[in-house]
Please model this.
Amino acid sequence: MSHATPKEVPDRPKRQGSRVNRAIAVERVRSQIAADLHDGVGASLSRIAILSEVVQQQAHAALPDAVALNRIEGPDFSAPADAAWVLRGVRSNERYVARDEKRQLGAVQEGLGRPASRNAALIPICKSDAWWDLAQDERRAIFEERSAHIAIGSRYLPAIARRLYHGRDLGEPFDFLTWFEFAPEAAGAFDELVGRLRETEEWRYVVREVEVRLSAGPIHTA
Model:
């Protein structure tokens, strides 16, 4: 079983044009971690917990080393006493998606738990107070009209499946948790997807981001 160490990436340099200098700590886990990528739960379940088996840490600290990670959905959840870290979120309505966009996405996107999706990624992010001080229509304008978040993501469907969870209203350290699943041959496309999103105006409002990469363990047959 492989081992992973979260690493902090220095603040991004100042760029011309649409890019601005901003303080952002991106902790990335690039090493593969053995994980079970399949749901095994019903569609009505709404809570997620991300956990690993090392030692407990403060919620505000950098995520520690981990040897395994599980995604658990359910109406109730109790964190194991020996969990290194637990992140919670809830599924919610699609807050920035217009009706036509919702219909178009629904026609092409696929669910989680596909047998070929042996790779996954978890990306929790926290946005700045400046983002939350904006009105809903102002956030929508940045999110889609100017950053094309939905349009960019739709180009990578159905190869990359994802699910969004909200943590801000729960008092969690991250506002959003996004879980991605994809086949190993789509890893390059996933890199391209997140790279494009990080270049948008929306991402100027991200003040903390963690990236955890995972791969499923080997399939054992009798």
Q: What stands out?
A: Strands lie at 7-9, 25-29, 34-35, 47-53, 68-73, 83-90, 119-127, 161-166, 176-182, 206-216.
